[in-house]
């Protein structure tokens, strides 16, 4: 496999130098590349170790003369297939070994920033707000999924984190958001379609087999994070006074799985201002609990430059029926010894059933504490 890294000279918040003199490409001369991407941590991190002699480094004490520097744009490729588009966030020299270590983030990191002004929206849609916030962070946006809906108005106060607002939308839209390998922010369905016990009638992207791709795997069931009773709350105004509207839901199938125990959680979502949206939040959370209850780690596998988060693996394991798993984490490492992936997988669930499963057990409106 061939691999390369291209680093571009800094030239402003949403641009970088593309002339030959403003970039450098390192080909097949790296010591080590590690890329850690996971659905639940949002920001993909990469660590690159390479020899630094004769490279155009920025002055250690600061300055703009070099190319390799913090916030310089970086792209990592395996066989010309992009694996990460982001920025260098930190670098360190090893004078003895003559190497430099680059710690990099993909472009999602910008959505962890806070607004520096109030933002006001009139009549618009949830997707339009998300797209605008992503654009304000200097990023490209693409919608692949999610249930859109109209909103009459919205005010985002100064100091609010972009990602926090977007997360509130996602829970009401049966959606997730992530940065793809090329650096574009993508709005997707929370979960792919899946038919319980449907076998190969379901879509799958890759087949992995114990004796061929993998050296080992570890599977189990984990109920420690499950909450079967959810109270979804939202601040609302009634006759210009502040109230909290709430709906309390139960997942009866989870209650049965938890042996009748009732585990309770309050979830506030500032956008869940109708019962329909509060049920959507409950369904979103229940699906997250169920998917996280069946983790499986395959380590290590032969490296696959085309595998990505959200894809589905058909796993053939000894002494058991084929399983279908969602890819939720990929730890990639390229060294002189080869190219491997460690995959974090989770058992598949039927999202349609879970979205409809929240059973309303209480509703109300209470005066918000002053």
Structure write-up:
Helix content is 14%, strand content 43%. The protein is mainly beta and 370 residues long. The protein folds into 3 domains: 3-106, no CATH class; 113-189, Phage tail protein beta-alpha-beta fold; 198-370, no CATH class. β17 and β18 form a beta hairpin. It is globular and about 70 Å long.
Low-confidence stretches: none
End-to-end Cα distance, whole Å, is: 63 Å
Largest sheet: 13 strands, mixed
* Overall form: globular
Q: How many domains comprise the coordinates?
A: 3
The percentage of residues in β strands lies in 35-45%
Secondary structure topology:
Blueprint (H helix, E strand, L loop, with lengths): L2 E6 L14 E5 L2 E9 L6 E7 L21 E6 L2 E14 L4 E8 L12 E3 L2 E2 H11 L4 E3 L6 E2 L2 E3 L5 H12 L1 E5 L5 E5 L16 E4 L4 E6 L9 E10 L2 E10 L1 H6 L6 E5 L6 H18 L2 E8 L9 E5 L6 E13 L2 E10 L3 H6 L2 E9 L3
Parallel strand pairs: 10-14, 15-21, 17-19
Antiparallel strand pairs: 1-2, 1-5, 3-4, 3-22, 4-7, 5-6, 6-7, 8-12, 9-11, 13-14, 16-20, 17-18, 18-24, 20-23, 21-22, 22-23
Helix pairs in contact: 1-2
